[in-house]
Amino acid sequence: MQNFSGVGVMPGRVIGTIRHMPPALSEPPAGEKLDASVTAEQAIARLKEAAASVQADLRTRAATASPEAKAVLEATAQMATDSMLLKGANKLINTGLSAERGIWESGETVAQMLITLGGYMAERATDVLDVRARIVAALRGVPAPGIPDSTDPFILVAEDLAPADTATLDPAKVIALLTTGGGPQSHTAIIARAMGLTAIVAAKGLEALESGTEIFVDGAAGTISTSPGDTERTAVDAWLKNAALLSVFDGNGVMADGHLVPLLANVGGGKDAVKAAAAGAQGVGLLRTEFCFLGRDTEPSIEEQVAEYKAVFDAFGSKKVVVRTLDAGADKPLPFLTDASEPNPALGVRGYRTDTTSPGVLARQLSAIATASAGSEAEVWVMAPMISTPSEAADFAAMCADAGLATPGVMVEVPSAALGSEAILGQVSFASLGTNDLTQYTMAADRQLGPLAALNNPWQPAVLRLIELTVAGSRAEGNHKPVGVCGEAAADPALAVVLVGLGVSTLSMSARSLASVAAVLKTVTLERAGELAQLALAAPSAETARTAVREALPALAELGL
Amino acid sequence: MSERLATIASASGLHARPAALFAEAAGALDIEVTIAPKGAPEDDALDASSILSLMTLGAAKGDEVVLRASGDGAEAALDSLVALLETDLDAV
């Protein structure tokens, strides 16, 4: 038996066989010539054959795909043998380039044409680039890039996933997700939580395992072992029994002593909101309005925005919905707002700061939120991301007042906002801790970087200390202004107890995690949570903080969390 | 050389599903058919069986395009393709 460990990001116990994500395809070198032993005619014939095999493969997959995926796969299959794509490549091959380089450049040209057209066409550029990569892989005789295709369910092992890969992740096929890189706050982790997919990140050494190896995964413990036996099978059975219990949240976040902790959902749009409401969420603690903007090269109209926001408000009746204004920049660039050439985008013009470089977008967004709010029952709160100073908070509050929005707030993600929360809360009505960014900025560790995963951990006592200071600032301010958490930290049942113990009043998370967090909160009193918070604050490291708190919460082991 | 003028009827224009259906129909014919915006030089006409060409053409609902083909069966082939373009394929 071989053992591996990483950072568990989504609980679950699974036994299955692994498949590796093929390495990303390397670009054929610029100017790569035809091999001397091959004529242009032969290369063109090989390309045609490769394109036909890619088409056949995509058609086979389309035949068994879900209706949505089927349409995309069929269109992509059609592109594989498209005359425009192949003729462009053939011309280049006739000038002496290799078939791989020819199709690479031809695909690039076509994709650029589509991007120039914008809108729907620009989105299809991704399909052209996908087909191009598949054809190059076929020419080289290597597996096609992307999530491997399999008729049987498997455990996916990858270095890290790109957002585009996660879109093609079929939860019926992939039963657990393991990455050797990536951190607990990477997009891979966020998506695994949203899909409810058992996942462990930053598990070193897995790359050496052969495809088809049977392994046991414990997503709560962050452990992986080969050659599973009876002990592991019993553990899986116990998990499945508990999982049924942990899938239901009764819509009432309450502690053992009756102290109420409203459990809210993080959502990214109307569809998400309907699901979250069905899962019992007591409101929305974070509406990521980027969903309305991402993939657009121009700002959406006010009417479009109103319709999108209203769909979310309406899903929650008269409950609270906290809207975060546009958080563009860093890992979420938008062509009409952010400057892609910044040397250090995480420290650049992002979030609220884009209002200084592109004034107008935020004011129009606030006006759209106000209109949508006026047409719905929901209790709408609005908060700005990346606030660093009281004067920014005051400016944002004034903009909200101008738009007719009564409850302005700020995200606390920058350490200066945590340290200055008393003065900042003097300007606004509430604060919400974005623990992902707060951790990245406190530890000065890019959350996308696998090697920094250990630093990028919200259990870091320094991060917990800043959360405590934020709450203390609110108490000093004197008007009982609520401080919530809407980062991934709230979805970790053990950390959720610590956050409540630090004085946080509401927790917002992926709807999938509501039931687990509620089940554990129910077993602890507020006083005990306070003691556990002190235990975590006093720990010398993130790992010891986590271990100490987990040991003091027997419910976690019982529930397999 | 036979020629036909057709007006795009699909609500979304000649993209997505309508483009896929049209390219498939054009590709199934034994003769080569080209497509070009009305008034464009014949040399700039694109292969009607290429979905990527159709997409880069960017024809919207109500736009007029010229279809061209020559050889046996050209007339009948063009008639069938015109009929397809003048049907709202988003609605079927």
From TrEMBL, chain B:
Its main location: cytoplasm. Residues 1-92 form the HPr domain. It comes from the Bacteria. Keywords: Cytoplasm, Phosphotransferase system. SUPFAM superfamilies: HPr-like. It is found in: Cytoplasm. The keyword Cytoplasm applies. PANTHER family: PHOSPHOCARRIER PROTEIN HPR, PHOSPHOCARRIER PROTEIN NPR. General (non sugar-specific) component of the phosphoenolpyruvate-dependent sugar phosphotransferase system (sugar PTS). This major carbohydrate active-transport system catalyzes the phosphorylation of incoming sugar substrates concomitantly with their translocation across the cell membrane. The phosphoryl group from phosphoenolpyruvate (PEP) is transferred to the phosphoryl carrier protein HPr by enzyme I. Phospho-HPr then transfers it to the PTS EIIA domain. This is Phosphocarrier protein HPr.
